[in-house]
Amino acid sequence: MFDELFGKLDDHDWLVALLDAERALAVVLGRAGLIPDDAARDIARCCSADAFDPVRIGHGSVASGNPVVPLVKRLRSLVRPDCARYVHFGATSQDIMDTAASLVATRALTPVLADAKAAADRCATLADEHRDTLMIARTLMQQALPTVFGLKCAGWLVALDEAMDGLRRVEPAAQLGGAVGTLSVLQDAGIPDAFAAELGLAAPVIPWHTNRTRMGALAGALGVLAGVLGKIALDVTLMAQTEVGEVAEATGGGSSTMPHKQNPTRSVLITAAVRQIPGLVSTMLATMPQEHERAAGNWHAEWETLSSLLRLTGGATARTRDLLDGLRVNPDRMRANLDLTGGLVMAEAISTRVGDGELVAEIARESVASGKSLRECLIEDPRITLSTQDIDAAMDPKAYLGAASDLIDRALRR
Amino acid sequence: MFDELFGKLDDHDWLVALLDAERALAVVLGRAGLIPDDAARDIARCCSADAFDPVRIGHGSVASGNPVVPLVKRLRSLVRPDCARYVHFGATSQDIMDTAASLVATRALTPVLADAKAAADRCATLADEHRDTLMIARTLMQQALPTVFGLKCAGWLVALDEAMDGLRRVEPAAQLGGAVGTLSVLQDAGIPDAFAAELGLAAPVIPWHTNRTRMGALAGALGVLAGVLGKIALDVTLMAQTEVGEVAEATGGGSSTMPHKQNPTRSVLITAAVRQIPGLVSTMLATMPQEHERAAGNWHAEWETLSSLLRLTGGATARTRDLLDGLRVNPDRMRANLDLTGGLVMAEAISTRVGDGELVAEIARESVASGKSLRECLIEDPRITLSTQDIDAAMDPKAYLGAASDLIDRALRR
Amino acid sequence: MFDELFGKLDDHDWLVALLDAERALAVVLGRAGLIPDDAARDIARCCSADAFDPVRIGHGSVASGNPVVPLVKRLRSLVRPDCARYVHFGATSQDIMDTAASLVATRALTPVLADAKAAADRCATLADEHRDTLMIARTLMQQALPTVFGLKCAGWLVALDEAMDGLRRVEPAAQLGGAVGTLSVLQDAGIPDAFAAELGLAAPVIPWHTNRTRMGALAGALGVLAGVLGKIALDVTLMAQTEVGEVAEATGGGSSTMPHKQNPTRSVLITAAVRQIPGLVSTMLATMPQEHERAAGNWHAEWETLSSLLRLTGGATARTRDLLDGLRVNPDRMRANLDLTGGLVMAEAISTRVGDGELVAEIARESVASGKSLRECLIEDPRITLSTQDIDAAMDPKAYLGAASDLIDRALRR
Amino acid sequence: MFDELFGKLDDHDWLVALLDAERALAVVLGRAGLIPDDAARDIARCCSADAFDPVRIGHGSVASGNPVVPLVKRLRSLVRPDCARYVHFGATSQDIMDTAASLVATRALTPVLADAKAAADRCATLADEHRDTLMIARTLMQQALPTVFGLKCAGWLVALDEAMDGLRRVEPAAQLGGAVGTLSVLQDAGIPDAFAAELGLAAPVIPWHTNRTRMGALAGALGVLAGVLGKIALDVTLMAQTEVGEVAEATGGGSSTMPHKQNPTRSVLITAAVRQIPGLVSTMLATMPQEHERAAGNWHAEWETLSSLLRLTGGATARTRDLLDGLRVNPDRMRANLDLTGGLVMAEAISTRVGDGELVAEIARESVASGKSLRECLIEDPRITLSTQDIDAAMDPKAYLGAASDLIDRALRR
């Protein structure tokens, strides 16, 4: 039920990955002559998830503390009797679990990166299209100075790009070290490289049973991406407020009791997923100190945490893509909001021209107090020597956009 | 697959709870004359989870952002056409979701508290049985002074008791406030009380749509319990080390490659679950600031987080009960470990008797350096005026247990 | 620098508390005849923070891993030489640190609770004063239905009350167990009770060196309070938006470059403090599993975490009190915002009267599409049989407040 | 007091960095002709931390919500009156704070990386020296199979290398965007590049006021390093247990009451620091969604969190270097522990030779039950056809190290 709202990654994904690891092990060992060729083929043939029931594997896991023991037992029962002893040859449960985790991650990251890329492309288009769409910039949730909507989109774009860069640098690795990471049975330090190559995973320098840097780095990179998605959703939610109305989602979420509402449901669901990420990242980092050659619990704590991280980030990225694809922008409301303070937001521009920020601030305060527009107050104030024309020029938001357009270009060139 | 290892709580539990909330609403409104009596009965009749497909409800949730909208739609299709308008009457989605969350929590907490109670009882039995079982106490993972195993168990007992007290003080509440918490349709502030009573939940002072103290407090209390379970599992794991061997689990987890190993699998799985809790608690607390009359994401972030918290704590509590039920204690190894330093651990006892800690420390260092036993060094040292008999008395661990037995009694009386 | 922004609690507070613990120990032991009376007096006389340099104590802590060892050494150098051996008699470093932590917490909580109480009282006043101040309620950041500002304040009030209740239930306890919690030297299980009484702290059942339930519960309760403060600050920040303008802080924070801005600085600083709490709570919970009779790191991780938790919650509570004391409410803007949709927010009220939500929703959508007011559309629509007078009555927000006033009364009575 | 234990980074570091940012701004603007050359020189001259009182700056920060406003005010009072208006020209508070944060981070990271490098080098030396030092590998805290201490050190080495790589990829950037990130006053998008160059910081594509990817990535990378340090400290703590005794710290921490103890104080303090990191990382990630053009709290929450992250990781890294520098290794105890099970840990080796794991497991269980050594049981069992010589060869741990030596070489080559 919640999967549909927040993202999906389940037992089946793990089961497939675990069996892919066992298959690749057999294939590589067969090729290396460490197990008979036809045993390798027979094992590979049987590594099909259909023949494995996750609930049974789960039940069988309790005694050993991980699903690989019952999975191997089941796999041995499926292969030709004389091949059974070659199943899982030279490997330890953690080799298969860690490799499966890397496969699960790699497979989950592919759509994440594709969706993030598409979202970034959409931001680029919006940045370019709206490079002249005036709106008010807001700091501490207060109207500040003019900007353009395109620059906001450029900010989203750069953030997405940087988050993707971070994620691309994470290379999930295969794991093959045998019972204690010495390759006690396989003996050949080259076998793990071949195993990694067979699966398209990175090959670690040495077994990483209790070196969890990759897990921590993956979690961190997902956390950064989630933070970026959260920023976009937050901006949309704020701009979509009834009182602001500058953007709307493609089709607002209906309310069960208030027919007029146009809820920013996508943003809400993105936010809901994103909020769950930092705690999960902290769990992944907290589990990094793992005892000796295999951890007594911290390793086991990774499995569901990693699944949730991938699942939630994946769901939120896909939804952000969808959000941006259908985002409806309302330049008229943006302009209207910019004009809401009757020019007060142009006070900095006036200050720069007048060269006396304190004076302008004082006049601005008078404008607020009296209800007269800032323009009027400025014209009337004898201490201001600018002509009405100069005042009007200084108060034109279009003329106070600084380097906004150049900055958009810089973001687009990246 | 992982459910079996770490605990179960799924869509079905939520679906049942959501329908229980809708049923109770109909019943209470029927009783109050706010909807026709037979409509109430017809709605109640249809609130059976069998008629609802969680995957479909999930799909239907995307547009609205929560499962209540499609659930209500489905329920309306099941009741007599003329009753459809009385389904979910006067309620908002959050009323049903929050009430369901409280039901899910209450139902999950029942076995948690029962298991924690049973675990505490087992600790009490162990504390009493082992009030004279000498062992070494360890501080900073170094042997320190003698204690008894019963006092360690008394410490677990008190911690479990305190954690249970904390959990019992949390009272999941019903929610019924209508669209914005004013009871705009139902109007009568007494209806929510009746609704709560019907479901056996606490009645809140006023609707708590964006007052999440109960959720935060529940998370905190689960976090404390998890911390206690983690402490017990950690102590067992440490005592079960091959080099220590003071306790063992009922039947150790077999290893896939090392037939001689007796893994403390229960403790490992408890630790794995417990490690995931603090991050989840932080998520629950971080989502507490919720906007206006309904949050744009922080509310939605609670559902899976709460489920995970309940699921993992539940699994870990049950496993702790099982762990303690079958714990095998080895008093001989405890005594052997106590004697491992050749009496050095009795140095404080000697110091107290001699009245010069520095001197005893110096002799203890000589003992370490020379390899001679502390007893021998003390007898030989001219600065020590105690008789050999007095030295032997001072070095008897049984005579240096302080108030251990009284402390155990205090714990048992509680 | 940051202390002033977010709250203060420093080395000096700890030093005073540590010395208070040593003093109370001497006093209690003197009274019990376990150390000479004049030694007790002499030690008590020297337990004055002025004679201790926190930096030196800090340097001296590195070898032992905690500040009590150098503190005791320094204290022994201050007392009469013949009293030196009675300093810290029968205690272990953790006894003094844990007791000091409880004192630090108790002392920090006093103003927290006073400020929270004052803030709650202010909410009560606001709730009562604004029980008829109409405003729009917002769900998912969209205008929903009418409510009154008083009910929002009542929500804050109840949340503060509940958070205070939670905090009051936490009872920081004294600690006195000796080296390994057996009272090996002091032997008498009643001494810790006397020690606790002397300091006005709770007396634990048995030493809690590695039973950290109190620390976890305190952290959780602070986390809940912080969540409530965050909720209030968030609502204020949102209502203070330039486009909303329903409330303002007493005096807005000036901007360095934008003279017209009235930043909700208090809310911003409260939010900044509150955001740091959940991570700190997770640390306190994650450190609960502590090894054997004293932890190898998890105990030591508590000190700064607890300080930060108390400091940040304290600062945020004081600032919330200040925020509420000076909050300026703008009922005109509230009313204006309520009218912003031209009556669309009254659609539910109409639906209830018409009895056909779908039909009203359709007309509401037509109103949005055509730009005609909902009232007009309703009058013109032949399917609506209500009189204009009935429509006007149904569209009066005052008439659609449900039980708001009763709910405020319930909150005030609490 | 706690600074000395866990690491230092304080107001002074921030003050210096803030003033460095203001100085660089003046210099760059002077060079670009945007402010008079002599004003630039005068401002630069006054940017000396000695003239600024952090407590006063702190007090002055409350109204504005950040320390830059009072700092600029103070700086303006220090420069020649005619230069005052050129102080902070074109910048916003966040430009200076963010730039200072990047400077603080860069400066804190330099010793972190140097200490991590030195620690890694020491691991490399240990790995090489101990490539033949037999010890027992432990999985789930149970003795498993033989390994060498050098391989454990190689694991630490690779983890440190990977964590350093991650940290080196983080490039703290300068910030210069003006009030809302448009460079409204400075106008020239090239100025921020010059500003960054002047300070030796990375130049961002565009202002990153509410794009916090760098902050999140820095936090994540520090979290990974901390996890690695925690792993090393944990292994040392476990190996230093009295019952294990395989390593000891250079000089153990004395106990206040137990003179014989050799506490692994460095490891304990490292662990204490490391435990606080994941919660802090979660805070940094949770604050990433920042509103519009400047956040209302999430930005402000970064300052102390970043300080703590840098401070604690810095302290823990320095201490890890010290820990490894003085680590005393006890190969005799390692060998003795390896022999503790009377050969049971060689069961896998026997299984491989016999080719029937179930049979060997059965015999191993008999050995455990009977108390006879595994060797004896194997010789006596008629189902085992290996000669006594073959059995002895199979049970030689030296012959069952797999690729340990090659793996060490791989780690050293890296």
Write up what this structure looks like.
The structure is a homotetramer. With about 425 residues, the first copy, chain A, is mostly helical. Chain A contains 18 helices and four strands. In chain A, the strands form two sheets. Chain A has a two-stranded antiparallel sheet. In chain A, strands 3-4 form a two-stranded antiparallel ribbon. In chain A, a hairpin with a 2-residue loop joins β1 and β2. Chain A is elongated. Chain A starts with a helix and ends with a helix. Chains in contact: A-B, A-C, A-D, B-C, B-D, C-D. At the B-C interface, β1, β2, α7, α9 and α10 of B face β1, β2, α7, α9 and α10 of C.
Please outline the helices and strands:
4 copies of one chain form a homotetramer.
Chain A (H helix, E strand, L loop, with lengths): L1 H5 L4 H21 L5 H10 L7 H11 L3 H11 L14 H37 L4 E6 L2 E7 H20 L22 H9 L13 H27 L7 E2 L16 H11 L1 H10 L15 H24 L2 E2 L1 H8 L8 H8 L2 H14 L3 H7 L7 H7 L9 H10 L1
Antiparallel strand pairs in A: 1-2, 3-4
Helix pairs in contact in A: 2-3, 2-6, 2-8, 4-5, 6-7, 6-12, 7-9, 7-18, 9-10, 9-11, 9-12, 10-12, 11-12, 14-15, 15-16
